Amino acid sequence: MGGNTMSKRTWRAIALFLLSSVPAWAALNGDIEGVVKDATGAVIPSANVTITSVETGVQRTLVSNERGYFIATLLPIGEYDVRVEFAGFKANVQRVLVKSAERASLNITLEVGPVTDFSTVETAVQLVNTTDPQLSVSIEEKRVKELPLATRDPLVLATLSPGVVPVTAANPFLGSGSFNANGGRGRGNNITIDNVVSTDVSTTGSAGFGTLSLDAIQEFKLITNNFNAEFGRNASAQVQIITKGGSNTLHGTAYEFVRNDIFNARDYFDTTGKASILRRNQFGATAGGAELQLGTAPGLCMDSQSRKVGGARRLRHLS
Hints:
The chain is mainly beta. It has helices at residues 2-21, 141-146; strands at residues 29-38, 48-53, 59-63, 69-76, 78-85, 91-98, 103-110, 118-121, 135-140, 164-166, 179-181, 189-193, 196-197, 217-225, 237-243, 251-260, 278-288, 299-309, 314-318. 25% of the residues are buried. Mean pLDDT is 77; it is low at 16-26, 292-297 and 311-319.
């Protein structure tokens, strides 16, 4: 009898945890909205809109309302093809990048012609958020991997945002991610990985980032002011790191990042005649699988690091 009671309590606790975590998922999604018009500027109601994920092929279909307006909410971040069709007009296809907690706005103009024909429009990435007052900087996967990060620490990307400066650099008590945003305290930053809090609550900065692979990051986002309703906990800045999932095919990467004193010049004030010892080898791999029957696509990463500085210590991390 006692075992059954304990089992029921366990399942109730699991159910409560799952239900309470659902609203937080909103911050990992974005929206696409648009207005459909003809060449004269008149709106087109009842146009068929098909939004297709480039990565997984999952589709969502919509119909524009009497004002020619449509909106698709809670789309997982990534690239989408938006196809708009209406009888007597050529189909219009645009590729859109959906970012976390942002809304991509499209102005779609249909040209007269057979519906079997279509025009493809290259949509530029929106550099300015025009849908809400939230101040944010978003760095997509391509730039995360291409920007030179000597420490391989994604939180350094926060310093690319206006108004952000590092907290005292030589302070040994402050970890990675310690920065001031628009004069706010470093302790006021909220850092998350896939909506899991990764903030060092004892001092300031991050926690649990030592084994995060840059190749596993799909988007880095920093919000510095006017947060939307789904954000909270800390009042200074919100840092979101969103990792990759799977897609329709098996894929992956392998890498090694090397720093070694044999590549370095001797410091001008060093009298030993050679560069200080520095040996750092960081290597790993990422892999993503095809979408499962349950509608999820698995992804995983492994990152290992071996470091030697001045012959004093070695550190190894594995995720």
